[in-house]
Amino acid sequence: MSGTLVLVRHGQSEWNLKNLFTGWRDPGLTEQGHAEAKAAGAKLAARGLKFDIAYTSDLGRAQVTCQHILDAVGQPDLETVRNLALNERDYGDLSGLNKDDARARWGEEQVHVWRRSYDIQPPGGESLRDTGARVWPYYMHVIQPHVLRGETVLVAAHGNSLRALIMALDGLTGEDVIKVELGTGVPIVYRLNADSTVASKEILEG
């Protein structure tokens, strides 16, 4: 019996548009972001996907994205679990700063290291490994059991929390995972075998 796991990064946020480090701050979606989330739902509806349960983070941009998707597939009242384990990586002192201003303050190389290394933390924040340390147990103990029972599960979250999850699912190294780019509002559909290995993966772009 194989279950289905659908991962979706939230639609474009106001701070994505302004090139700001967001982390645990909670800006809303832009008009484009709402459209991306609705389009993600339309793609999943076109595949005939129906969900048994949905998971999202403690942040509004992911929750609104999740609701747009559920509306589009005709399940607006589906049980949805919110948990900060799925929150975006905490950028600490960088949160709210323009990325160009951060480069001017700390230097291009240092900011690149903070953004794109696996295990180096920005000041007061989390590394991608730290993010994984809260995402992985939550997935293993809470989300994965539903999928292994043959259910179809939606996870609407963030670039780095989903990157950590993809690292585990795809068996990526720390060096591999920092190169993974996730588009806003692009569904990734995994089908898992009963032993939790990946049977197939499809990215619903375009």
UniProtKB/TrEMBL annotation:
Residue sites binding substrate per the record: 9-16, 22-23, 61, 88-91, 99, 115-116, 159-160
GO terms assigned for molecular function: phosphoglycerate mutase activity
The reaction(s) this protein catalyses: (2R)-2-phosphoglycerate = (2R)-3-phosphoglycerate
Marked site: Transition state stabilizer: 158
Domain of life: Bacteria
Residues the record marks as active site: 10, 88
Keyword line: Gluconeogenesis, Glycolysis, Isomerase
EC number(s) per entry: 5.4.2.11
Chain coiled-coil ranges: none
Pathway(s) it belongs to: Carbohydrate degradation; glycolysis; pyruvate from D-glyceraldehyde 3-phosphate: step 3/5
GO biological process: gluconeogenesis; glycolytic process
Pfam families, sorted: His_Phos_1
Subunit and partners: Homodimer.
Family in the record: Belongs to the phosphoglycerate mutase family. BPG-dependent PGAM subfamily.
Function text: Catalyzes the interconversion of 2-phosphoglycerate and 3-phosphoglycerate.
NCBIfam families assigned: pgm_1, PRK01295.1
Protein name as annotated: 2,3-bisphosphoglycerate-dependent phosphoglycerate mutase
Gene name of the record: gpmA
